[in-house]
Design brief:
CATH topology of the largest domain: Alpha-Beta Plaits
InterPro entries: ACT-like_dom_sf, ACT_dom, GcvR, UPF0237/GcvR_regulator
Number of helices: 4
Strand order of the largest sheet: 2-3-1-4
Number of strands: 8
Radius of gyration: 20 Å
Shape: flat
Order of helices and strands: EHEEHEEHEEHE
Strand content: 35-45%
Organism: Aromatoleum toluvorans
Number of domains: 2
Mean pLDDT: 92
CATH superfamily of the largest domain: ACT domain
Low-confidence stretches: none
CATH architecture of the largest domain: 2-Layer Sandwich
Helix content: 25-40%
Largest sheet: 4 strands, antiparallel
Protein name: ACT domain-containing protein
Pfam families: ACT (PF01842), ACT_6 (PF13740)
Distance between the termini: 24 Å
Structural class: alpha+beta
Length: 175
């Protein structure tokens, strides 16, 4: 039986790091299912979901542990089977002048409505004309069936007005 193993790793960035991880996973028969990796402030930060036969998990973990000798911090977690609840998918886009607390305030509204953030990508960049810091966020969300889209949108738009940011919330078709 195939099992998902989620591996998180962080440490000093260097060329060949992803290749080293991929080679070890491949040697143990693991399939690389999905990942998100980035260089942040000189540190490599990554998360990858590998799929592997249950009996081979211990060998995979053992083969990855030597990466800790290269300065990486590793953590392994078994995947949890998806729930059968019929959550709606939505996408949130936000752009505005950067200031502390944007993620906290948006995530508080989402949490209050029971919305789960599946994926969150953020970046801060200089605005093209003014050069002022511009904050951008893209989030993929899971919305419980009981949550009215109109109420969620109303609360997010009220906060967007308060924060003076552009925000859009769009329902996504089921995958």
């Amino acid at each position: 039986m195939k099992t998902s193993l989620v591996v998180t790793l962080i440490g000093p960035d260097r060329p060949g790091l992803v290749n080293s991880l991929a080679a070890r996973a491949n040697a143990c028969g693991a399939g690389w299912m999905e990942s998100s990796m980035a260089q942040l402030a000189g540190q490599f930060a990554g998360i990858v979901r590998l799929e592997i036969d249950e009996p081979a998990i211990a060998d995979l973990e053992k083969s990855l542990l030597p990466l800790e000798n290269e300065g990486l911090h590793l953590r392994f977690e078994r995947g949890i089977p998806p729930t059968t609840a019929s959550l709606r998918e939505a996408r949130l886009e936000l752009t505005g002048h950067d200031r502390p607390g944007i993620v906290h305030e948006i995530s508080a509204v989402l949490a209050r409505h029971g919305v789960s953030i599946d994926k969150l990508d953020t970046a801060c960049e200089n605005a093209s004309f003014s050069g002022e810091p511009l904050f951008r966020a893209h989030a993929e969300l899971r919305v419980p069936p009981a949550v009215l889209a109109s109420e969620l949108r109303r609360d997010l738009e009220a906060l967007a007005n308060e924060l003076m940011v552009d925000l859009s919330l769009e329902d996504q078709p089921p995958r």
